Amino acid sequence: MRTTSNPAFKNLPSGGYANFNAGQTQSAGFGTGFGQAPAAPQQTGRPMTIDDVVTKTATTLAVTVGTGAATYVVGGAAAMALALPAALIGFVLAMVVIFKKKVSPALVIAYAAVEGVFLGGISYLFGNVVTDNPGIIMQAIAGTVGVFAAMLVVYKTGAIRVTPKLTKWIIGALAGAVVLMLLNLISGFFVSGGLGLREPTPLGIGFSLLVIGIAAFSFLLDFDAADKAIKGGVDAKFAWYVAFGLMVTLVWLYLEILRLLSYFQNE
């Protein structure tokens, strides 16, 4: 049973600090977009805590914000030219982190740094070229932080419980949205604007709101996976995977909010 759509969590073991699960075959407390999570090997370090998750996530965010701000300050054609290569390098680093068998903090930090360059370039493009309104950058950041905080409160209070049914709905909605975006991209080679899903029209606005909603609910699955990893007593080093996974969702959400805000600037 898949319990999160985020592939970044595929390397999180199913729990078992020290000999807790040694010699046992245990069902994973959470899964990934790639299927069942592997059972945890015998751990030699200390178990992961919420402080580990907060610290590692804050570190990756600080790196991303730092490189992003530096890229934005550089500005001009240089900042925008860096966006595409940074996106490609970031994608490669993400794949390495996801499929690498061992935890690598250096790779996670490298991914955060490159994503910052990408976001800095894209932000400059949207704020100074697409809309000629740099103010939407802070609006997008505030919106991203607000959605993240709101979903964390929703999860911690149990206002929305992460059930198998909800998990299937979120993963299905995500898959559907990705298919539609691919179809829109492909059709764009033949018809101007493609299916119109990424245009400043009522259809485009509605689709952006849908994708933002899916990204927001994806946080619930991410929080649940992290929570079960902590309760399962996995090694503290796996907090880097949690930080990486949350970064992936945060970047996605920020880009979608930035795109949505840009639609209203051209009204």
Fold and architecture overview:
This protein has 267 residues and is mainly α. It has one domain. The chain is 67% helix and 1% strand. It is built from 7 helices and 2 strands. A two-stranded antiparallel sheet has the order 1-2. β1 and β2 form a beta hairpin. α1 packs across α3. The protein is globular. About 10% of the residues have low confidence.
Tags for this model:
globular; two-stranded antiparallel sheet; mainly alpha; 7 helices; 267 residues
What gap, in angstroms, lies between the N and C termini?
A: 44 Å
- Count of extended strands: 2
Q: Assign an overall shape.
A: globular
Structural class: mainly alpha
Query: Gyration radius, to the nearest Å?
Result: 19 Å
For the biggest sheet, the summary is: 2 strands, antiparallel
Mean pLDDT: 84
Please count the helical segments. 7
The SSE order reads EEHHHHHHH
Query: pLDDT under 50 segments (min length 5)?
Result: 16-42
Tell me the strand percentage band. under 5%
As for the number of domains, it is 1
Helix content: 55-70%
Taking strands numbered 1, 2, ... along the chain, how are they ordered across the largest sheet? 1-2
InterPro entries: BaxI_1-like
Transmembrane segments: 72-99, 106-130, 136-157, 169-191, 203-226, 238-255
Keywords: Membrane, Transmembrane, Transmembrane helix
Protein name: Putative YccA/Bax inhibitor family protein
What is shown here, in short?
The protein is mainly α and 267 residues long.
Task: Reconstruct the topology from this structure.
Elements: E1 31-32, E2 35-36, H1 50-74, H2 76-99, H3 105-130, H4 135-157, H5 164-187, H6 202-232, H7 239-265
Antiparallel strand pairs: 1-2
Helix pairs in contact: 1-2, 1-3, 1-7, 2-3, 3-7, 4-6, 4-7, 5-6, 6-7
